[in-house]
């Protein structure tokens, strides 16, 4: 059985004095909490006896009134001020406001410890704590007792029965419902959006949503990979118990992880089909892939991103699912392929990809795929666009955009430039195991410095000079001539577009009519 404010005042050994708010002395105290924060309400569940060191009390009448109104909105039962020589007097305006709010304001002498008050409240709360433990045990039991084929929505329904509140699980960024819960009521959605808009950092552990001086709902952060909130709406038959709600949030995190694992398993068949369409052989024993994604392939685009760790990939998949974006992911070698619907230029979908993979990720995006059989061509487009993004220093590039080489807008043009200028050099390297192309690339990177190029290649300066003469003999272009140098630079840059960051895109030699020629795949 919980303690009332009047019963606490009646205990003479505590030496507590009532200063204001006498109309509220019948209120029940759920717990005693000490805090000297200027805005402690984000850490309060309602029903607490807030104990505050007197010297941390606002000194102005306006500040004291605002503090009392904040406590009332958070449904604090009473305020205890620990008196000391530096405690400011409670202003008349503050006394009147406490009386209007029926918020008891108590004073305790400097010689009396807050511990004594806490113990008195705790002793009276033992029975309530026992009931709370039973509720918490039943909350975790909802996870263990998940029946076969249970939906996430059924878990939330069981959670509602235990908490005595209407419960929602929402994405913290979009406020869209997750785990099969219904959308928030418009008024609650507005309150939550407004509360989160004032936050510039991470999602807080608790967000209180007051409405007309009452707490309409409370949002608890769910400890999950993707920021998630458990929102409990007010129930007339039970007040908010912050401790129990935190346990409910932990249980919701377990359920969310289980649901994400199921979704990952369901996505494996589609990923296998995408891998096959990208040019890989069918995996032995692979189940038939569901055809749901084919309905969006006409508008979907293929993105080529750098390979990332498993956690980033998982967060990307979660982030896209949370926003209802149809997608398939395949990781191979050094490239993460992501087939995305709604990834047109300017779409926020690409912002989600960059945020999950890292702002420094260089990403290339193809034209709309159109039909599944065009997937290999879309892969070449995405790789080429990624080379454009890399060359111009931008994080994302779409196929057809131009980088530093306006005349080279697609792989065919790039191949033509490379073959026309450097074909003989690459053929000579392939036939003789030499490094003429690598030497030319290093020479251009080091601003035609013989010494710096030699140092980078770890060869003698005279060797670099010999190799550049050999390049001139094979190409008919002299590195000392400006016009010839421009063509060589263009060809080297086009070669990079075809090879940068793309496994399998490097030049391969094939014999045709007894000579070497370039082949890119």
Provide an overview of this structure:
The protein has four domains: 3-121, Udp-n-acetylmuramoylalanyl-d-glutamate--2,6- Diaminopimelate Ligase, Chain: A, domain 1 (3-Layer(aba) Sandwich); 146-255, Beta-Lactamase, CATH 3.30.450; 291-398, Alpha-Beta Plaits, CATH 3.30.70.2730; 411-519, PucR C-terminal helix-turn-helix domain (Arc Repressor Mutant, subunit A, Orthogonal Bundle), CATH 1.10.10.2840. The chain is 45% helix and 17% strand. The protein has helices at 5-9, 61-73, 92-101, 114-144, 152-163, 186-197, 242-277, 310-322, 348-357, 375-392, 411-432, 436-445, 450-457, 461-475, 482-499, and strands at residues 3-4, 17-20, 28-29, 31-34, 48-53, 78-82, 105-108, 166-171, 206-211, 214-222, 228-233, 301-306, 327-332, 335-340, 363-368, 396-398, 508-512, 515-519. It has a five-stranded mixed β-sheet. Strand 9 (206-211) and strand 10 (214-222) form a beta hairpin. Helix 8 packs antiparallel against helix 9 (348-357) and helix 11 crosses helix 15. The radius of gyration is 34 Å and the shape is elongated. The model is unreliable at 280-290 and 501-521 (pLDDT under 50).
Dominant shape = elongated
CATH superfamily of the largest domain: HprK N-terminal domain-like
Could you say what the CATH topology of the largest domain is called?
Udp-n-acetylmuramoylalanyl-d-glutamate--2,6- Diaminopimelate Ligase, Chain: A, domain 1
Distance, first to last CA: 76 Å
Give me the side-by-side strand order of the main sheet.
Answer: 2-7-6-5-4
Question: Radius of gyration, rounded?
Answer: 34 Å
Largest sheet: 5 strands, mixed
The CATH class of the largest domain turns out to be: Alpha Beta
Number of strands: 18
Q: Given the helix and strand composition, which structural class is it?
A: alpha+beta
The share of residues in extended strands comes to 15-25%
Number of domains: 4
Mean of residue pLDDT values:
80
Percent helix: 40-55%
CATH architecture of the largest domain: 3-Layer(aba) Sandwich
Any low-confidence stretches, pLDDT <50, length ≥5? 280-290, 501-521
Count every helix, treating DSSP H or I runs of 4 or more residues as helices.
15
